Amino acid sequence: MLNKSNIIIKIMPVVLVCFILLPFMNACKPSSEENNNNVSRDIEAQDIYTSREIADAIVAVYTADELPESGLDNYFSGAAENSENYIDSEKIGNLINQKPQIVEEFDYLEDFALYVPAGLSIFEIDVLKIKKEEENNIGAVKAMLEKRIQRVSYGDLVQYAAHEVPILENAKVITVNNYVILLATPANGKAEQIINNMIKGGGNSSSPSLSNDITQEISEDPIADKTPASMDEIVNIEPEILFDFNDIPVTESLEQATDAALKRTAIPRVDVKKYSHNTMFIIGGKCEAGAMIRVTGGTEEIYTGSDHGDYLVEVPFSSEGSSTLKLSVESPGKAPSDEITFIVKPQKDVDMYDRYGAYGTIIGENYMSYVEDCMADYLGDNLISDAEIESLKTRTAKKISDLRDKNCDAEIIYVLVPNTVRTWAEYVPKRFVRHTGDTLVRQWKEGVTSGGATVLDLTELMANHKNDEFKIWHKTDTHWTEYGAYLGYEALMNYIAKKFPDAAPRPRSDFEFYNKEANFGDIFNFLELNISDLKETSSFVRFKFEPPVYNSNYNSGFVDLYNGNSVCLVHDRVQFPHTTNTNLKDLNLPSAYIFRDSFEGPLHAFYTDRFSTATFKGMWDYSFNANQITSQNPDYIIYILSERNIKGVLYN
């Protein structure tokens, strides 16, 4: 991975050349009127720069603040094999199509240069130069890059880097002479000026709007209040009672509003009522703790539990005519509450689930929620071939041999955090049928362990603790709780303690776990609710010791990762590359080099004092550079990896 200073150093000579030649290049620059027309490609124009020189010059015009924090990986044709700038056909396939397959469009190229984000970022510059004899295939190359833009998950951005959504929305692919160039930057105009100056005969760029589905304007607050356009289609018929349940404080409705004779369950408060699909409706709010929720009138009866008095149900209804949904709640030992009635009818334009891609929200039973990204594992839709398993074995073995060639004896350990659907499969909606055959987890484990790596699979551990006093998963968020992370910390450090006894996990008495009510997490963000609409009572921790400080912005090594009083994580507080050093100087502790996704966040403060030095890659940056790793001479190379992110390391 190249850091920003390295990028600037490497491309400064190119920038100087650009300034020396600027008068000449400006003479070739078209008028502003021409700039507004579609380009007529001059295939016969004389080219004076390589793709690499153009890409380097483009990147040079962006300030440090405009470049991604995680850095950029730079690949170009002609790079020395095994250098950090070399990319083979398998990796090109993974980059473009997420599969290690040949990308035939690259056969049309004379040369290329790719600046791609090392972590979760959108900033990208790709300059592809077409062979003169392949000019008829420029359209195919352009379409390939447009598809690359479209593959970016809009949900991923909203979740982890909402400030980069405008970059994706403004990304474009342009053609100038025999170049096809992808621009995904905060200010594409800067890049286009360099392109106009450097490519003789260029200037006008053809950049029609991409046919992606991203049309929603994103506010600074990704969970800002958004009222669905179809809300006026909902008719809420009040129950036949003597008061308006929505105007009664929770304490009164839960403790006083009961029928003395029947000991009737209090009427629930309704805070959420909206369409989630064209023929699905969600209802949520607050009810008596321990109450069961019943909804009739849809295509299936819903009968599910609440969670500490919080409830949310998703009700499928008929695609024809109107449906009358009736909701009631029932606490143990009490009669059901009066019914609340909703009249709903099919919609035509509710695209919330599809629009968020990997983060399309699935409401399960007992207030459990899931995202679409984890359902492929549950359904068995993501299995790989025997050849891919063998290739995974080969790549893993090569990583280890590259380390050994550089006198590094580090053990590679994958800490695999299962998807919530593995732990709470019984709460998945009935419309999803669980696959009972082979799984990607088993296939992936076979590949990496056969290649010489170690896998600590936490699936059974999580299942054994799912009914503990403290939650191991948030129910409204995709991540584990701090208590779940603590269990993972124990498993990892107990394994490492076999070789380094001083690295054994701290005793449970060093941590104080507790439950509290907070605003909902990231999954419910994608239902476009107000942050205060629904709550979750979940598990948190207080440390009775001081973890190592890792960032000069913090006085303490324990950093609150949550977004105010919610269970939604603020990943920016730990996601960028950094190094920690233990404050326990009298112990014999190992060193570690750590790859990670966002599940590492809640784990971070637990284990940083168990390593003498821990070098953290940026989250989601899985690029394996043996030179960088061995320069740290770690005892362990550790991947903190959630099951749904296995696809991120399959081909690295």
Main β sheet profile: 6 strands, mixed
Q: Please indicate the count of domains.
A: 3
Apparent shape: globular
Gyration radius (Cα, Å) is 28 Å
Give the proportion of residues in helices.
25-40%
User: Which spans of ≥5 residues are poorly predicted at pLDDT below 50?
Assistant: 1-46, 201-253, 257-261
Strand order of the largest sheet: 17-16-23-21-22-20
Total helices: the number is: 20
Number of strands: 23
Q: Overall mean pLDDT score?
A: 84
> How much of the sequence is in beta strands?
15-25%
Structural class, from helix and strand content?
alpha+beta
Distance between the termini: 13 Å
Q: How would you summarize what this structure contains?
A:
The protein is α+β, with helices and mostly antiparallel strands. Strand 21 (592-596), helix 19 (600-607) and strand 22 (613-616) form a beta-alpha-beta unit.
Description:
- It is a single chain.
- Helices cover 26% and strands 21% of the residues.
- It is globular.
- The chain is α+β, with helices and mostly antiparallel strands and 652 residues long.
- It has three domains: 4-198, no CATH class; 231-350, Sandwich (Immunoglobulin-like), CATH 2.60.40.10; 374-648, no CATH class.
- The longest helix is centred in the middle third of the chain and has 20 residues, at 386-405.
- Helix 1 (4-20) packs across helix 4 and helix 13 packs parallel to helix 15 (440-450).
- A hairpin with a 5-residue loop joins strand 9 and strand 10.
- The two termini are 13 Å apart.
- The chain is built from 20 helices and 23 strands.
